[in-house]
Amino acid sequence: MDYEKILSSAIETIRSEGRYRTFADISRERGAFPRAQRHDAGDNARSITVWCSNDYLGMGQHPKVIEAMHNALDETGAGAGGTRNIGGTNHYHVLLEKELADLHQKESALLFTSGYISNEATLSTIAGLLPECVVFSDALNHASMIQGIRNSGAKKAIFRHNDVAHLEELLEAADPKAPKIIAFESVYSMDGDMAPIKAICDLADKYNAMTYLDEVHAVGMYGEQGGGVAERDGLADRITIIEGTLGKAYGVMGGYIASSQALVDVVRSCASGFIFTTALSPVLTAGVLASVRHLRGSSSERIQQQRRAAELKQRMRDAKLPVMPSESHIVPLFIGDPVLCKDVSDLLLNEFGIYVQPINYPTVAKGTERLRFTPGPLHDDNAMDSLINALSEVWQRLGLTRKIA
Ligand SMILES: *Cc1c(COP(=O)(O)O)cnc(C)c1O
Fold first, then answer.
1. CA angle, 182 as apex, 181 and 184 as ends, to 5°?
2. Most exposed: 44, 66, 94, 210, by fewest CB within 10 Å?
3. Residue with the nearest Cα to atom 6 of ligand 1?
């Protein structure tokens, strides 16, 4: 058996489909975000502007976050030193879990090493524990939720994206006595649209289902205190489990759920992805705590982010660029072909010092390849001008589509 040959041919297939992934090697510059240095193959560095960061609000370089992390490093050393159960629970974990429970007005919260793990661990545990459980899952749910549902062994019913009528059809068809979980996201990160949260909660009440809401692309950015779209819309108390990341708007790393005492206790006691892994470093945890506390008290970052996003969408429309409709801070620009998508991204990076990663299958459906811009409070007028000029030139040069398929 020639293992290397099988592996190489798998890569060849990916290449031939134009979706071979190359990572941009960048050094982010603290104090200059969204500027960064990009290292090319010969290790020459060049200054670029990052337009696709999930550090949406620049909290990854916020002075309060940096200071908290320095202090924690000096106080406690580098790592947690164990799993949460065996010597690894640090006081920062306890403080952060209290803070997150309070943010979402839930009884309890639980930290994980990433948002991915929080989705996988929670859904696999809860859906696996409830006998005969059926999970109703939005068709565009994130891979981490899909994996969690799969690993639970529970029955899955997929409803068309944001389609409440289809969801109701599936709920109606299910055994009335079976436990049910409706799993969905508030902001869908590749299209930038939002779920009909209230209508889904109404259905959950009608059919006696639990609700599981991934607020990864909303925490820190929506709601009076950054508690997400559910906070903004006054619906947090109707969501059974709210899940979030600490690596995007909060600018550091980690994930969490907030829910009832009993539910969190079950996940804490049973979820493999929580139990059998070293706890988050106290340094990271202290940074997150400072970030969450700051964004609970300050709205200026999220207000400015919304302004910047609205401005970029308008300027793209004015320049006749095919910006896709989006209700959120996410600005997707349609290309519709994987090879072209990569070419545009390469051209922007190599000739204009503008970094925006091509988004191809399997992250989005084939034929809907796009560039996904995430303007933030620190993208200034100059950066915006340069971007629009560069895009206009590239669109002209490559004869790209001005229509969304
Ligand atoms: C990024 C993402 C996650 C995973 O969060 P990480 O903290 O990056 O692991 C979960 N859900 C959605 C919708 C995401 O986009």
1. 135
2. 44
3. 115
Q: Beta strands of 296-388 (E only): which ranges? A: 331-334, 354-355, 358-359, 370-373
Report the number of secondary-structure helices (H) and strands (E) in the chain.
14, 14
Active site residues: 248
Cβ contacts of residue 380 below 8 Å, gap of 6+? none
Beta strands in 5-73 (DSSP E): 25-28, 35-39, 45-50
pTM of the model: 0.97
Pairing relationship of beta strands 180-185 and 134-138 according to DSSP bridges: parallel
Mutate to test the pocket of ligand 1, among 116, 145, 256, 328 (most ligand atoms within 8 A of CB): 116
The tens place of each residue's pLDDT in the chain, 405 residues long, gives 999 999 999 999 999 987 888 899 999 999 999 999 999 888 899 999 999 999 999 999 999 999 999 999 999 999 999 999 999 999 999 999 999 999 999 999 999 999 999 999 999 999 999 999 999 999 999 999 999 999 999 999 999 999 999 999 999 999 999 999 999 999 999 999 999 999 999 999 999 999 999 999 999 999 999 999 999 999 999 999 999 999 999 999 999 999 999 999 999 999 999 999 999 999 999 999 999 999 999 999 999 999 999 999 999 999 999 999 999 999 999 999 999 999 999 999 999 999 999 998 888 999 999 999 999 999 999 999 999 999 999 999 999 988 888
For residue 175, report the distance from its CA to the centre of ligand 1, in Å.
Answer: 31
Q: Which atom of ligand 1 is nearest to the CA of 253?
A: 7
Residues in the chain: 405
